[in-house]
Amino acid sequence: MTAAVVKSRIQCAVDFDREGRQAAYLRAPLSRNTSGWGAVEIPIIVLKNGKGPTILFTGGVHGDEYEGPIAISKLARCLDPAQIQGRVILMPAVNMPAVLADVRLSPVDGRDINRCFPGNPRGTFSEMLAHFMDSVLLPHVDVSVDLHTAGHSMEAALSTNMHYVEDAAIRERTMAMAAAFGAPYNAVFWGVDEGATFTSSVERQGKISVGTELGGWGRVNIEGVRVGERGLTNVLKACGVMEGKPDTAQRDGSPATRHMMVKDPGNFLFARHSATYEPMNLAGEVVHAGELAGRLHFIEDIDRDPVEVRYATSGVLWMAPGPGRVQRGDCIGVVMQDYDPVAAAS
Ligand code: CA
What's the pLDDT tens digit per position in 99-123? Predict the structure, then answer.
């Protein structure tokens, strides 16, 4: 007995099968004191030209991550259907209420939409939106590129990321797609809080999912925008949707993305006290096991010595901490190592 399919409550004005360019708004109902029949309008741009794969670009899943919305909306304004073969769906600001409020979580229901998948059409606003993405949008999609940054909570070394997908063929294709995007690093990881993420939804449908971390710390990373914009057209080229070869040359002279992995649980540093944190390294720096990562300062207590935090693993710092004040249990750093297929499979 299968559960009855419940239709999305979100109105979608685009026809995914129509040729040419359509730019419209999803209308996601949001009943308020001042507008019982009101809606949140979420931009969606669809370009189609004949047969070919469908590529989805999403940004603003978290509202305080700016590089994706900038890169995707720029592409959405200038991409011409005549330049493509196939279909491109662009959503520069998925979580519009959070984007407008400049916060990670939805100000409507307090939820992280990236922990609401596969969603619920009768649930909260974020659950309703997640359900639309999962049940209406994703069935059309072959490759999903979801542009994130580390928001206010961290600063990321500019990177794509992907799960270590069990299916070897899909894993290889995902790695190739991440390499085509052409960020300085691609972090293969095993997830922190998975199953309810958008990435997990894409993977459950057997499609290719690439994420990014293009900055953080609550500001626009200029190089992150550059890498993001190039990455979008690189992916279209790699999929044959646009003509040409991906440009993956790096600032340091290397010709391509460096594949990394985040498998060892010791790669994650957590604050053991609520304190003011003094970090020692920037994202992208080489760090060594045993080396000082930072100090937790108890400014409110004159005679109390700071508590040292030391790296448990060696590698490159993928995520550097963001806010100076940290709470016990907060993640204050993530280290990554060079990708090793044998170690990854073990
Ligand atoms: Ca994010």
Answer: 999 999 999 999 999 999 999 999 9
Distance 304 CA to ligand 1 centre (A): 35
What domains appear along the chain, each with residue ranges and CATH number? 3-262 (3.40.630.10), 265-345 (2.40.50.100)
Nearest Cα residue to 259 out of 181, 153, 198, 167: 181
What distance in angstroms lies between residue 97's CA and the mean position of ligand 1's atoms? Answer: 15
d(CA 260, CA 32): 46
pLDDT score recorded for residue 4? 55
Contact present, 182 and 231 (Cβ < 8 Å): yes
Q: Report d(CA 93, CA 96) in Å as an integer.
A: 5
Gap between the Cα atoms of 96 and 61, Å rounded: 8
Report strand pairing: 54-58 vs 86-91.
parallel
Asked whether residue 3 carries a pLDDT value surpassing 70, the answer given is no
Q: How far is the CA of 62 from the centre of ligand 1 (A)?
A: 6
For residue 104, the CA-to-ligand 1 centroid distance in Å is 8
What's the sign of the alpha-carbon dihedral 25, 204, 126, 321? negative
* Ligand 1 centroid, distance to 213 Cα (angstroms): 7
Q: Cα dist. 98→62, 104, 126, 239 in Å? A: 7, 6, 10, 31
Alpha-carbon separation of residue 96 from 26, 42, 208, 317 (angstroms): 11, 6, 25, 31
From ligand 1's centre to the CA of 226, what distance in Å?
18
**Distance from the CA of 148 to the center of ligand 1, in angstroms?**
5
158 CA distance to ligand 1 middle (Å): 13
Q: Provide the whole-model pTM.
A: 0.96
Alpha-carbon gap, residue 17 to 51, rounded angstroms: 10
